[in-house]
Amino acid sequence: MEAVEERFEFNLVDEPWVPVRLLDGSTCELGLGDTLVRAHELAGLDIEFPTQEPALLRLLLAVCYRALNGPVDDAAWDALWRAEALPEAAFTSYLGRWRTRFDLFSPDAPFFQAPGLEPAGKGGIKPANKLIAHAPTGHNVPLFTPVTDATAQPLRPAEAARWMIERHAWGTAADKTGAAGNPRVKGGNDTPPLGYLGWIGFVAPIGRTLRETLLLNLVPRSRTGLVATGPDDLPAWERPPSGPERVERPPSGVCDLFTWQGRRIRLFPERYDGEILVPRVLVCAGDDVQRDAVRTVDPHTGWRVSKQRDGTLAYLPAKPGVGQQVWRGLSALLALEEGSQRAGVLSWVAALEDRGVSVVSLLVTAAEFGSMSTTLDDLLADRLDAAVAILRTGDLEAATLAGDAAAFAERAARALWQVAYGPFLSYDEERGRYAVPEGRTDAARGAREAIAEEFFSELDAPFRRFLVDLATPGFMEVGRRSWADQVTALARALAGRHLAQLSAANAFTGAEADRLFRRALRAARSTFDPTAEPKGAVA
C-alpha cells in the first residue's frame, strides 16, 4: 500500500508567529488577526533582528490597506485615528476571505512561497539557517555572527515565517541557487539583485502603540503624490502563486511593493516528536523591482539626485551613513539639498501636526553589503525622536535649524582633528609651520577618526534632546544659541582632556594643536551662529 504524504498546516491568520511587545513590557507571539485587532494594546513589534521590522511592518500595512479599502482620504484616516481600536470586523472579513493563502504549508499556494519549487542542480536545498540574515552559509560569513553551519537547528514555523518575509526584502546576491524551470539559470545558478530593502534607506514613523504606528504609515490613497495604491495594487496573497520563472517589472502600488516576491522560496516541514519544524529550505532568485519606477510608489525612502557621466540626472535612494549616528545624515533625511526628495511618509506625518502629533519617533535602517553583495557586513538600525516641526514642507525653519545643528557638529569634530594631530606634528622648516610628516599620516588619520567618534558619542544624547526640544514653544528663538554653547563646551572639554595627556616633549606641538583647534572651532561656530560671539573672541 502506497504511503500517504503527511499534510502540514500552520495558518498565519491565527497561529502565533508575530513577535509583539505589550504595553506593560511583556512579550509574546500573536496571529496576524490578533496582532491587528489588538494593535492598540501593543507597544510594537519585538523583532529578533533589525532587518525584520521594516519587512513585517510593511506586510501589516499591506493587510491594512486591503482590509480597510483605504483609507481613501484624510476624513477616513481621521475616523481611524479617533477610534480606540482598528475595526475588527474589517480584518475578520478580509482575513477570512483570504485565509487559505496564509497557510505556510499549503501544497497548492504556500504563503510567500513557490509551490513545488525544485533546484536546477544538486545541493540547492539547504539547512533552515539559510534563511537567517546573520547566519553563515558556505563561504559567505557575515561579521559577528553567533551561528555556524555546525550549530544549525530546525526553525519553528513562526521563526521560518518571519525570516522568509525578511529574506524576500533583504536577500543578498548569495542566493545563487537556480530554480528548475527558470530560463535564466545557467549551470544550475542564477544570481539575483540585492533585495529591495537592502538597496534603499528605510524610514518610518513609530507611534506609542502598534495601532498608532500603522496609522502613521497608512497614507490616505487621495495623497497620490505620497503613496501609490489602487484597484490593481494587490499583495502577493491576492496574486497567483509564484512559479520558478522570475521577471523584472514595476510595482503596481504599495501593497505590491510591500509584499514583493524578491526570492523564490520553499520550506520543507517535518514532524519531530509531534512538533512541526522546518529543517530545510530552498532559496532561489525572485522577481526584480524595476528600480527607476519606485520613486513615485514607495513612501518609506527619500531620493537624491546624481549626475551621470552622460550628463543626465538619476534619482538614487537617500541612504544614511552606516556606522555612524543617524542624525549625522539629517540633512539627507529631510531632503534639504537641492533636487532631493523626502520620503513621502515624512511629508504625511508633517501634515498631522494639527491633529496633535508634535513628536514622532523615526525608525531608520540602512545596510552595507560586502563581497559583491553576498554578505550583510554592517547595519544601521536606529530610532530618532524628533519634533514633527522639522518635517514641515511649507515652513523649513525647524528643519533648517536641525540640519544646521548637525552640520555644526560635523565641523566641530573636524576642529578636533587638530588636537588629534598634536602628538604627530613636526616643524616643517621649508613651509615654516607645523605639519604631520610623511610616514605618520596613517597614524594621525586614525587618531583624528578616534577623537571625532568620541565627540559624536558624547553629542548623541544632547542632539536627540535638541530634536525633541524643537517641539517646545519658544525654543526656536533660543535653540541656535543653546546648541552653539553645548557643542562648544563639549568640544573644548574633550580637547582639554586630550591635550592634558601629551608628554612634556610635545609641549610646543600641543600648543600649536590647541591654537589651530580654537581657530577652527571659532570659525565653525561663527558660521552656525554669527551672533554668538564677537569676531576674534576665544573659543
Walk me through the structure:
It is a single chain. With 539 residues, the chain is an alpha+beta fold. It has a domain of 132 residues: Topoisomerase I, Chain A, domain 4 (Orthogonal Bundle), CATH 1.10.132. Helix content is 34%, strand content 16%. It contains 14 helices and 15 strands. Strand 12 and strand 13 form a beta hairpin. Helix 2 crosses helix 4. The longest helix is centred in the last third of the chain and has 29 residues. The C terminus is likely disordered.
Task: Give a brief outline of the structure.
The protein has 539 residues and is an alpha+beta fold. It is built from 14 helices and 15 strands.
Secondary structure blueprint with pairings:
Layout: E1 18-22, E2 27-30, H1 32-37, E3 42-45, H2 52-67, H3 74-82, H4 88-97, E4 125-127, H5 157-170, H6 196-199, E5 202-206, H7 210-217, E6 248-249, H8 254-258, E7 263-272, E8 275-285, E9 288-289, E10 303-307, E11 313-317, H9 330-333, H10 344-350, E12 359-370, E13 375-387, H11 397-421, E14 426-428, E15 433-435, H12 441-469, H13 475-500, H14 507-528
Parallel strand pairs: 6-9
Antiparallel strand pairs: 1-2, 1-3, 4-8, 5-12, 7-8, 10-11, 12-13, 14-15
